[in-house]
Predict the 3D structure of the following.
Amino acid sequence: MQNTKYRTFPRGGIHPPEWKLSAGEPIKEISAPARVIIPLTQHLGAPAVPVVERGTAVVTGQLLAQGQGFVSANIHTPVSGKVIKIDAAIDASGYKRTAIIIDVDGDEWDSTIDRSPSLNKNIRDSREEIIRKVQDAGIVGMGGATFPTHVKLRVPKGKKADMLIINGVECEPFLTADHRLMLEKGNELMIGVRLIMKALEVKNAVIGIEENKDDAIEYLSGLAEKQPGISVQTLKVKYPQGGEKQLIKAVTGREVPGGGLPVDVGVVVHNVGTTFAVYEAVQKNKPLIERIVTVTGRSLSTPSNFLVRIGTPVSKLIDAAGGLPEDTGKVVLGGPMMGKAINNLDIPVTKGTSGVLFLPADESHREKADPCIRCSKCISVCPMGLEPYLLMPLAEYKLWDKAEKEKVMDCIECGSCSYTCPAHRPLLDYIRLGKMQVGQLIRKRKQTV
Amino acid sequence: MEYIIIFISAIFVNNIVLAKFLGICPFIGVSSRLETSVGMTGAVAFVMVIATIVTYLIQYYILKPLSIGFMQTITFILVIAALVQLVEIILKKVSPALYQALGIYLPLITTNCAVLGVAILTIQNGYNLPEAAVFSFATAIGFGLALVLLSSMRESLDLVDIPKGMKGIPVAFIIAGILSMAFMGFAGLV
Amino acid sequence: MAKRESTFGNMLLALTVVTLISSASLGFVYELTKGPIAAAKLAKKNEALQSVLPEFNNHPVEEVYKKAVDGDTLYFFPARRDSQLVGTAVETFSPKGFGGTIRLMVGFLPDGTINNVAVLEHKETPGLGDKMDRKKSDWSVQFEGKNPKNFKLAVKKDGGDVQAITASTISSRAFCDAVERAYNSLMKGGQQ
Amino acid sequence: MDKKLLTVSLSPHLHGKETTSKLMTGVVVALIPAWLVSVYFFGWDAVIVPVVSIGSSVLFEFLIQKYLLGKKSSIQDGSAIVTGFLLAMTLPSNISPWLVILGALVAIGVGKMSFGGLGNNPFNPALVGRVFLFISFPVQLTRYPNPNHIIISDAVSGATPLGLLKEGMRNGEAVSGLLDQVPSHMQMFIGAMSGSMGEIAAAAILLGFIYLLVKKIITWHIPVTILTTVFLFAGILWLANPRNNADPLFHLLTGGLMLGSVFMATDYVTSPMSKKGMIYYGIGIGLITVIIRRYGAYPEGVQFAILIMNAFVPIINMYIKPKRFGEVKKNG
Amino acid sequence: MNQWNNFSKGIFKENAVFVQVLGMCPTLGVTTSAYNGLGMGLATTFVLLMSNIVVSMVKGFIPDKVRIPAYIVIIASFVTIVELIMQAFVPVLFDELGLFIPLIVVNCLVLGRSEAFASKNNVLSSAVDGLGMGLGFTLALFMLGSIRELLGSGAWLGIKFIHGDGMLLFILAPGAFIALAYLIAIMNRVNRRNA
Amino acid sequence: MSQVVLYTIITLSTVGVVSAIILYFTAQKFKVYEDPRIDQVDEALPHANCGGCGFPGCRSFAEACVKAETLDDLFCPVGGNETMAGVAHILGKEVVEAEPRVAVVRCQGSFEYRPRTNHYEGVSSCAVEHSLYTGDTDCPYGCLGQGDCVEACAFDAMYMDEETGLPVIIDAKCVACGACVEACPRDIIELRKRNKKDRKIFVSCVNHDKGGIAKQYCSVACIGCTKCVKECRYDAISMDTYLAFIDSDKCVLCRKCVTVCPTVSILEINFPPRRIKTEAVAAEKTSLTRESGKISDNSDSLK
Ligand SMILES: Cc1cc2nc3c(=O)[nH]c(=O)nc-3n(C[C@H](O)[C@H](O)[C@H](O)COP(=O)(O)O)c2cc1C
Ligand SMILES: Cc1cc2nc3c(=O)[nH]c(=O)nc-3n(C[C@H](O)[C@H](O)[C@H](O)COP(=O)(O)O)c2cc1C
Ligand SMILES: Cc1cc2nc3c(=O)[nH]c(=O)nc-3n(C[C@H](O)[C@H](O)[C@H](O)COP(=O)(O)O)c2cc1C
Ligand SMILES: Cc1cc2nc3c(=O)[nH]c(=O)nc-3n(C[C@H](O)[C@H](O)[C@H](O)CO)c2cc1C
Ligand code: SF4
Ligand code: SF4
Ligand code: SF4
Ligand code: SF4
Ligand code: FES
């Protein structure tokens, strides 16, 4: 029934329960906390270098740290106040890393930022101008990978993009941040899409949305009708539909070659959150200092979507959502499939934090791993056509060469395999180890060559 | 037709290892890796065919006319040993690549019952020269088939947890046993 | 231990000496055992003959005659007591065994009645087909004293009179086949 | 420490509902129709043999794990039950319980636990047990009771249709004549023939097959390729020489082909991992089955065919890989 | 080395079949009964003993390069002698063992011992070693033969214990492999415990 | 002599001699040189094939020995000096006496001294856990206790102590192959000089956090107080970002530093008992407790 109408990627994928508890909750703004912790690594690539010192007074939107090198991003202060120290703090990586810690004092904004709610439809900036603004605003991919957006906007020489795909899939269970954003900021998104199209010099843009967000599909389709070149593509509900390569395959039928980038098939993918941030940066001159975070969990009293300043500790969000549920066993930053479990509730929200999920104690434990029964279910769900059952022992027995030959590096860490395995094998745990070790070997090899 | 029957018989029905119990030492010994077992198969096939032909000639042109059949064992093994060494020496010089691939198995072949066994069986079965060649080649293929199957299975078992006492040789024998059991299904094919 | 240098001369010498000595001793042993081996072979054949034929006092092995049948050869051993023919043993075969050709020695009385059967050679499965051998079971007793003229040499399944070995119809059939071949040739070839 | 500690682990933090024991239970459920048919035709024997087989399989697994391997027992995963059940289904109902116990010992002890238990065995344990019995006790294993629909069967030893065929053909009779002696296709479809308990009723096995497919326990690839291969290969032989060959439908309905291809060739542990691999595997089983049935000494070849192809599985897995994402096209 | 150790190592610690896994073909091929195993073992022992003695006697005269061919000739001679003698005096057993008698020549055990031991030691030690190794081999074959005969035909040394047949598989090829597998596994365990 | 015997002799001798001649001449013609010393060296090696020497197997090590100019960089940890002397003898080369070494575990963060602050669930692999986060305590440096090192040891020289959750090295069995050092993702294991009677003194901690912070999560961490550095008269102790390190080549085992360490981070092992101090120290050790406090430090803990 849906086959003809809705597209999806052809191989693999799973259907975890959706649990979109907060889908009907409008975005609520949370006021700035008393103290924020701003890690210097909120993006893929080199840490930003602080341009403030201990004691510097800052106003909201002011540059705190400058991106360093090709792949890096600027960081701005989300609050006004005083830098009290630059020191190590535990962030979502699970380790202590350098962060700027600011005590909040008032809410004074940088005067260049346009804070009015009005829509700015006029696209005046040139292509270069847009990219520069995006870079200045420190925008990174908000779909999870936090790859600096300006790098993606500059299509490498010799390659040509002919299509922009906006990722509004949000295939992770529980998360609703993108969904709410699409419903509430549709007009801004359209302008954001135009801006990115201009930057990339492409004529076509497709917004990919999963079937289960029919209100967003309807709303954006209506808006897109008036926008030449922009269309909305409804997609079947299947995890990991939002994975870049899967999305491209679903929308265009093109397959990003192993080890290649989306531009190799002429496509660039951006998340809706990123698109909105681009709009704000270019049209409103507002750097990336806040983001939408879904705070959710089945025992939580009020699952919500919050607009949160970067640097706000997770504990503050918990308070706003009605307090830590009694039975909490695990707290996850991000969605349940790809998110990271944290051991400390003082960890700050960063540019890549799309959600905070509370899992009850009885759901936070893993079943005992049984021997692999070779059911090949992990193979059939792997969207990348890998053989997780094989990769796991290869990593376990440290056979890195073989793991590389079996394409361990292609794994997108979607977790479909571990989810499916009837024997509860910790497939992805080991595959990650394999990726790490093989990655190191490859880098070493490149160095010696 | 005759040749096809000899061929199928030697590979499936009367597999040299699984049914005739010859060449078991290398079958168990070099079957821990698939790659080596392929190399071994190549080396065995090479030596087996040459040795069978040479011993055939010796049998029918020397031993039989002189009616000293009892000398079969000693002359055959001498010829095989010399042949193996000859092949090794020549290969080392002429094709170092091939030597790298097969050379390490060559010394093992001298003490491989399969080679001498096939030479003697050829005589016992009363084959003529072309039949002898087909028979020895097919036997080598049969040896290779069993070896490759066993080694691929052993290699895949490297990634699982085998009980301590069974690891290595015992498990190889169990596999060989079940394989031999399965091959009994081919009985009566020819 | 001191390894001996290898020169062409001493290599050749050593090998020659070793082969010389070995071959000489082999030849010697062969000469010694030649007699006993021949005797053992003869004894085996005689044993088979004695077991399938009534008492005789000639040397059937010396009077053997043969006949080519079905691509192989049958051997006939006439047994006489005091030059009176008391029976003929036929060394017969059948290619239809489960494991290949089987060879039997069948002793017939002059009227064609089967006196006894001995298995000379077979490759049937131990525990199954090899029950045709008297050493393994008494199955072949059922042939004793039967005359194929009125005893149909086929297993019951095929409408004959032979009770097949359990689970070894094939071997039993081959057995019958061999006996029948012997009988037919003997009768057709006439007795000397 | 009184404070509850947060759990930290790597993603994913959710898990599907599938478990090993649920899969195994599914297989047992799928076998029930075939079993009920055998109870109908063979009576109490068809109850006793499976009970003995399952009981001893589980017991042996438990004892070996506990006393020989010193591992924690894992009988609750249910795989020993499946092995025991399938072993029973491949045996004639009039077999002595002692042989059943011996078969279970070989299946579990040699076929499975020697390799370390569930997931490690390269050969199908139930078939190892069955072939062991078949070779060791050919007399007992080739005497089948005739189907009987009275509740207590009076064990007459009969021949299976394939057995009849092979016998006749060895005697040089024409197949067409022989086919008159065997039950009709319809009778065979519902199970009115002699044979092993589980193999007689194609209809009941197909019911189980549908259940397995619906429950997503197995995919269609292996059974369908085996059956198709047998159908095509037997069909070609039949068209070429109808005097010496049975029709392809006869091949599909007789012997252990159905049972083997639906329940035994599909055993996860001993079948290939990739879909393409499964197809090669299925073709192999189909071909070997027909070759043994037609040219070999044994009337039936499925059990050997599956074991032989089991041996090829590691090679298939090594060289036949699923298609990797982004593998073919270098540019779109 | 203490001669007793020298002797006993071949039976236990370095047993050719269980530990070194040499000479597998006769081990599997002829052990359908305990009697056959014994016969084959003794034949091999004879060859082993004699060739060890002769090799250790001539080791000084053989240049290194032709060592192997010379040893093979020596071994092959003894094998042929055994062949002839068995043919003459135990023809029944000879028929049973068939092809495996000439194959003693290529039994790695025999050549291995000549190479590894006899060519480095004196005559007495070599003789003791050959005897020990040979008896170890014989013991293994006898054990395997006994097991296969017991399980396969329900008999031992030809004496029937049960009516009818045993588990035929054990007389056939697969049973040989499987029985040997467990025998080796058990021996491994025993050896490890003793070590 | 009968004819048969004559034929026998002639045939066999001919076959033997002919093959010998053919072999000899082909051997001459197709000669390939291989250094015979490789075999000799190979024979002298212990054949553990453990790779501790850095080569894939004993034979390739032998080849390397034969090829190498000097044996300085080549060492077989299993065979030790004795073997290397043998190899040197065969090759007529000199061998440097490598100092015997032994592995030590530099972490004392047992369950008692380093409270667990969360519950790790996942595969038992230090490498995996290390890639995830600090571990189930708050110490980002300390032992994760999943036993990768124990797994790596091919000589059964290590085991996990159930009570402390830390690995233990059996001095007598350790051959200093370094496999465990390689395996540990947190670089906790070090190869140190083996002293008389296996005595050793070393700082059993690898924590670079500032003292105050380190003490919050581990009561036996090195806090970088520099007391030991000042105490050592042999200049054997150095301080690197709040962590003391004792150079085993310089240390003379005087035991002075041990007594001054306020957190008992410096271990003395296999020494005769001291009379007075130890009890007091032990008492102090157990009285240390975890305090809560803020997290702050500026070192980057990710390698
Ligand atoms: C090393 C590296 C280089 C990249 N270079 C580019 C680039 O030149 N152009 C581009 O559009 N995207 C580039 N990307 C971004 C990726 O295509 C992708 O969008 C990003 O990794 C996030 O995707 P994910 O969330 O699916 O992992 C790069 C990514 C990495 C890791
Ligand atoms: C398994 C997987 C699932 C993903 N799911 C989503 C998703 O639901 N929504 C999304 O926007 N990005 C998702 N991503 C990230 C996208 O691959 C990609 O990085 C992103 O759309 C690029 O846009 P950005 O650079 O603006 O973040 C997922 C990535 C992976 C690997
Ligand atoms: C390992 C094995 C060996 C066999 N050997 C023989 C044999 O030597 N002779 C024979 O007639 N059948 C042999 N068979 C064939 C079967 O026993 C088969 O059931 C028989 O040919 C036909 O059965 P029936 O005699 O009960 O009609 C063997 C079967 C197996 C499994
Ligand atoms: C679909 C399916 C088929 C199975 N088939 C068999 C079988 O044929 N024989 C068997 O012993 N076990 C079978 N099992 C159970 C289990 O996989 C088997 O015991 C393992 O091979 C033991 O490692 C099956 C399980 C499943 C899920
Ligand atoms: S986590 Fe990796 S291996 Fe597992 S299903 Fe996803 S892409 Fe495949
Ligand atoms: S899903 Fe699990 S049990 Fe099935 S093959 Fe993959 S790893 Fe093995
Ligand atoms: S792994 Fe470590 S403990 Fe084990 S021997 Fe090597 S150095 Fe010593
Ligand atoms: S010392 Fe290192 S490898 Fe060993 S258990 Fe501790 S963290 Fe793991
Ligand atoms: S005895 Fe070793 S190969 Fe046959």
